[in-house]
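Hey team,

Sharing the Crotonase run so nobody has to redo it. Sequence (274 residues) first:
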Amino acid sequence: MPSADSSPRPPEGDWLGTKFLKFTREGPFAIVTLDRPQARNAMTPAMYFGIRYAVSRVNADADLAGLIITGSGDVFAPGGDLGGGGDDNWMQWGSALSLDVTPFDTLRKSAKPVVSAVNGLCQGGGLQIAMCSDVAVVSDRATFRVPELYRGIADTYYSQMLARIVGPVRTRDLMFTGRTLTAAEAVEWGMVARMVAHDELMDAARDVLARCCRTAPGARRVVKASLDNYLGLYDRIGMEASIEGPEAVEGFLAFSERRSPNWVHPDLRVDGRL
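Structure output:
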C-alpha cells in the first residue's frame, strides 16, 4: 500500500482540477478565469466540472462572499470542445454533458452570489453559465449564440430556460436559426442583465457582486428558490438520449471536419462549420 505522503496531490493553492481554469482571490471575492487561449477557451469536461467545484468551494469558504466567472482574451466561453482536444480530457462528451459534470444547476442553487463577467464570445455551455449565474454583466464587445441544434443536440435545458427568460418566439429564433446576438440585443431581450464598456467590465462585475453580497443571505436564498421554481425543470432524459444518438455523433464529426452535417439538404450545405 502506498503511504499517504506518496499519494497523488493537486498543486499547492487553489486548484480546480485543470490548468485551464485560474482561481484567484481578491479580498472577499473569488475569480475563476477560463484560460485556454490555444482553443479559444473551448471547455473540456474537466473545465466544466472545475467551475462546478469552484462554486461549491466558494460556498464552503467563510472567507469568501461571492464568485466572478470570466474568460481570457476576447472569449468568455464557446461551449464544449467538440473536437476532443485538451490534455486534461478524462471523459467522453456524452457523459460530460450530463448534469453530473456540468455546473448549471450548481450555479442556479448557489447560496453565495455568482456574477458572470462576459468579456467576449459566449455561446453553447458558456451562455448557459452566464444565464444560470445570478447576474451577467457583459462587455459591449460580447456576442451570443445557441448553436446546439447545428450539432445534433436536442438541448431541452436551453428550450426550457430560454422560453422562460426571452419567450418562446425568440427561443425558436435563437435555436432554429443559430443567429448571433450582439451585447445590446442580449440586454434588450432580457437574456443578460447589463452591458458596460469593455474596459470597465471587471470593475462593473465587482461592483455588482458587492451589491449582491450585501443582501441578507437567508432572504436571498428564498428569492433564489422562487426564481429557480419559475425557471423550472427540463426533459433531461430526452436530452441525454439525444446526446447519445446518431445526430449528435454526426454533428460532432461535422464540426471537427469543418463541414455541414449530412442531414442538411445538398443544396443548403455551406463551406465550413455551421
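Residues 21-260 form a domain with the 2-enoyl-CoA Hydratase; Chain A, domain 1 fold (CATH 3.90.226.10).

Ping me if you want the raw files.
A.
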